[in-house]
Amino acid sequence: MKAKVDADTCIGCGLCEQICPEVFRMEGDKAVVKVGTVPNEAEATCRDTADQCPVTAITIE
Predict the structure, then answer these.
(1) Bridging pattern class, strands 3-5 and 58-60
(2) CA 30 to chain centre
(3) Distances (CA, A) of 15 to 3, 23, 37, 60
(4) What domains appear along the chain, each with residue ranges and CATH number?
(5) What percentage of the chain has pLDDT greater than the value 70?
(6) Rounded Cα gap, residues 41 and 27, in angstroms
(7) pLDDT tens column, 29-50
(8) Among 26, 30, 31, 57, who pairs with 9 as Cys (CB 3.0-4.6 Å)?
């Protein structure tokens, strides 16, 4: 499973980093994915993060 952040859509609220710091971090005023593949133990939290993103900037593959 992989996560992606659309930098053009991201508003830099930091919610993803708060919910799932294993996968997301803030870089400047945008969120970025810090792992190539989401760790198995973080998959549910990562999906929850995508669902909670206020601008739907996160996609899961």
Answers:
(1) antiparallel
(2) 10
(3) 15, 12, 20, 16
(4) 3-60 (3.30.70.20)
(5) 100
(6) 24
(7) 999 999 999 999 999 999 999 9
(8) 57
Q: Find out whether 55 and 12 touch, Cβ atoms under 8 Å.
A: no
Q: How many whole angstroms separate alpha carbon 9 and alpha carbon 43?
A: 22
Which helix (H) or strand (E) segment holds residue 52: the answer is helix 43-52
Q: What is the pTM of this model?
A: 0.93
Q: Which residues neighbour 46 within 8 Å (Cβ) at sequence distance 6 or greater?
A: 1, 3, 20, 23, 38, 60
Q: Of the candidates 37, 2, 30, which has an alpha carbon nearest to the alpha carbon of residue 15? A: 30
For residue 57, give both structure tokens.
């900037």
